[in-house]
Structures
1.
Amino acid sequence: MKPPFLIGFNFVREQRWPILVLLLWILLLAFLGLITDMPRGREDLLFIFKQVALYVVVFSIFFGGSAIYNERKTRRILAVLSKAVGRQQYLSGLVLGVTMCCGIYCFSLGMTGSWALGEAGFPASQVWFLMLCVIVACMLAGTLALMFSTFLNPFFAAGATAAVLAAPVLLTHLGLAPWAEAMPVYALTVTVMESSFRAPGSPLWSPILLALAETIIFWVLAARIFAHVDIAVAVE
Amino acid sequence: MAAVLEFEGITKEYRNLPNLRRLRALDDFTLQVEAGEIFGFLGPNGAGKSTAIHLAMGFMHPTRGRGVMLGAPFGHAATRRRVGFLAENVALYHRRANRLVRFYGALNGMGGPRLLQRATEVLRMVGLQDHASRNVGRFSRGMLQRVGLAQALVNDPELLILDEPTSALDPVARVVVREILLAARNAGKTIFLSSHLLSEVELICDRVAVLHRGRLVRQGRTSDLLHAAGQTEIVARGIAASQIPGAVAQNGALHWRTPAADQRRIMEQIWTLGGEVVSVNPLRRSLEELFLELAAEARPSQRGPS
């Protein structure tokens, strides 16, 4: 069980500069929201918080979609997979790494959000529930992107992931709302976006559980596909 | 002796985008590497050497055929715990050398004081003990190759698979690597070595195989292959060059390169003419000469690209 953790932590280490920039962004927003005397409404503050929270879902797609590609392009994957590391373990490490990167972002945002929004009267427990929704959405989005990236380049993998994640929007418009719930990232982002001071929202666990189950399914699928990939062949 | 690495009728084809044309990198490739030997794997660029190594490591899947490494089929993850691998153009994470070696050791299930000790030991073996706390991102290519070798050795592997391990090294570092490999063989390890540095291969390899366009064109003991088939060199003095045809005067002596069958006749002629035979040796050719000879033989029958 050790290799996935080593690979996951190594992934976070490799992504330290993007993560640092994202953390600085969160701190800058917190600084502008709290320390300065800028006139602001508390609804504006919540809106910015929700928007910044959802950015990380997009980042998770980029993290997941480019992980294998970068490793293959730099050929660093060869030294890792020359050890007693199975391809499933390798993918588990990458999923863990993507989740940890997004987790660091969500934790920082949760801290600043519960501080800033708490002072404005938004329940801190609800901030953390929203962060839970976001991190679970990130896990699923990142794993889906990782699965597509086992056979597509990062650009197409990101596009395919975005298409799958956005499918519920189309299905809802087509009157197929029940099917829209099959891809819970949309439901989770809606939960985040619809929370307000008047209606912070009550925790809904079904999309979270469904997202966790789908993360496992896509991870298994990714492992199945990746097991047949010739990783030493130069990437396009 | 038991084979630790075995390729059995392996064919590997790539599909070339965008026209999906099939490119054959290996064609019905069969080879056995025995325990405790240093096996040299030679061939020109594009011969399929790296493909064969990547198949053995499980980085790729054969189109046809099968292979066994240390008793398990190619690609068996747990078996790789007993294998050390160094890729051509080694690419490693940018970390401090000692931490990097420990990271790769940990991936192989090592840990604790044993890993710490072994990481220090292998960095000392490759001559990087003074650079152990430097980030490998700032290393020269030669140093990077030595760290690569250190990570391959960290688990004290039974089988070392090295793809061009000395290509970026200076002569001093090459000697160090040569000594490491010879010490490993003396300790009972098996080394599968792909290299373009034929003089290195000639010095240390027990057996060699030559690959050309995905096909095995020659294999055998290095000493056997280097004996020019049935040729002998006779050196004599005390007679004139014109007395026996085919002699070349060199450093005050006469040299004949002659088929072994004519050896006795020429020696008797020398003695009859009152000359003295200084030496009679089976003629050796260099690995480079053999390599060029095989490449020339293979050229007229070139088939698909590799």
Note: Chain A touches chain B through 27 residues (CB under 8 Å).
2.
Amino acid sequence: MNVQVVGCSHHDTPISVREKLAFSPEQTLEALDQLRRVFRHVEVVLLSTCNRVEVYIAAAGGELPSGEQIAEFFARFHGLEMEELLPYLYQHAAVDAVNHLFVVSCSLDSMVIGEDQILSQVKQAYQAATDQDTTGPLTHTMFQAALHVARRVAAETGIHTHRVSVPSVAVADFAKQIFESFEEKRTLVIGAGEMAEETLRYLQDEGAHDITVVNRSPQRAVELAERWRGRARDWEELNQAVTDADLVISTTGAGEPVVTLETFREIESNRRQRPLFILDLAVPRDFEPAIADRSDVYLYSVDDLQSACASNRAARDKELPSAMGIVRQESARFMADLHHRATGPVIEQLRRGWEKPKQEELARLLNKLSDLDDRSQEEIRRSFDRLVNKLLHPPLESLRDEARDGIPHSLLDALSRLFKLRD
Amino acid sequence: MLSGVSIVCFAVSYAVALGLEVSRLLFRSGVRGAAMLAFAGAGLVAHSIFLYHRVVSTPGSPLSSQQDWFLIAAWVLVVTYLYLVYYHSKSPFGLFILPLVLGLIAAAAFFADAEPYARGPASRIWGMIHGASILAGAVAVLIGFVTGLMYLSQARRLKHKLPPVRGFNLPSLEWLQKANARAVVLSVLMLGVGVLSGGILNRITADPNAAPLPWTDPVVISTMLMFAWLVVASGITLAYRPARAGHKVAYLTLASFVFLVIALGASLMFDTEHGNPRTGEEKPAVEETVDLSPSAISTGGGRA
């Protein structure tokens, strides 16, 4: 039973190479089809995301393709030179491959550790391979175990709950704690900073679609509004736009606050005390800090969020060892199960070998004691079953213990010879 | 077999569920959610069996005594808790609701009178309406109190820009505010029905020769105070929209809770005629009239 992974990731591979190696969903199906034809009798799953491209290969018996063969396949498929790829490709085999899949699925190897997108990407990769019929018993077991481990890590550690980027913290740890849903909320973007765009992406993922853009340059406001499927308003309407808004993301390059406390008091009187979430990403700040003291106003600056990010990062780092511990434990258990499974045929033969004399002796005994009632006969049968199970228990336990460190070839061989199982 | 279930059985189950809720703040566990549900669910089953046993063994049950009233209020709160935990499994509702449940059970066990209220066929239906509506109103006030506390706690964290505390993921302010406002409306409606039915109960069961339950009875006064407060507060929130938003509605529910505690305290501490048979000392009773008022707090029960 062999398992290996060949691929590259954001750790050592520049984006220029990852871009060339990436597989679109259609290419993934085509690649799986080709891999199945080129490498017969192996099970294959292809995982391609913006941060990694990996091929998981498994075979119940026989040799697996080498790393070079997989690299050749990548090069041929994408029309690249081998020399371009080889320096970046890594290869893990056996327990290391399983461990790697578990680490990836749990988002412990992601660019942003703990992000939850990778698990759905792993699921999609597995599903695509299953649909293309390139999976088999080993990859089924491996990927289902990976999903189980990811769920366990999510349940038992806080690795996924600690966000570490300013926009994700702003949305998940603060905006989502104020508003139950963003579908009917009005989002106002003041200015055109990059971080506003990233924050908007998070908000749109959460259902925000009523977006208004206010910018000193009306043309720029219209461009941004079109890109974000929102509407533009004139700079002169800023106060009214803040009055109407539920969420404000401000990223202007203004040298002084665009909304002062005095201005906000006027705005506030028309808001009827609706909660207002203000994300002030501008430096210097766009909203006068004293506005934060107003009732039902939740104002966050970059510094506020960065300190939250730092504390989240520290909390996440604390969780990392326990998450890795779970992965190691599950990898070891998985490999032991896998090795133990390899002993299945010998165990089966052993059971069959003992079953036959048991049945013969039982038949002989019951024949001699033909006057026994059904209940007594049943009791004797059970007693024979228990005897065989007790006799089989020590060798089976030894097999299970030995399987923890690999397939117990010598023990299997000894059992086969001792009990003449070859027949 | 059913009579083997005691108050201690379900109180201990709820206490363990509360302990598990507290442990959310200390460490993570993959099985805690299931264990919490199992203990609270087991407690609820024992609680239900206990109440069922009371119903079959005590004439006039349910709500036949002060003790029943407290136990049924606790039962309704536990059902609400399980419902909330099912839909918001990550929110620590139990930290807020289960102490109230245990408080109600403690009041039932140590302070409340287990003697059945006086009862009579004429007032039976009105007594049930009175008791059930006052109970629903009181539970709504308790739920409002819980969501109000959660709102203020969440708002404080957000205002101070603090990251979420592990194991203490409260629902959003918007959700809490809605729940809070609904609890206020429900409590006003239910207490309104309770007060009205109490008044009717006081009339229809009135023995012409017996003195009616006086309006100066501590239970009547405290309940009327709570109801008046809720009516005034709800009126303000209806007339002035900002009062329905944010902290104001949360403070409103906290104040309502204080009135509820006063009303419940009055029923337990003061000498009250509420719920007692009213045969009329000055004038002999012409017929047996009975107070079916099942609640410990009412305005007009207690006729006999």
Note: Chain B has two domains: 1-115, 117-304.
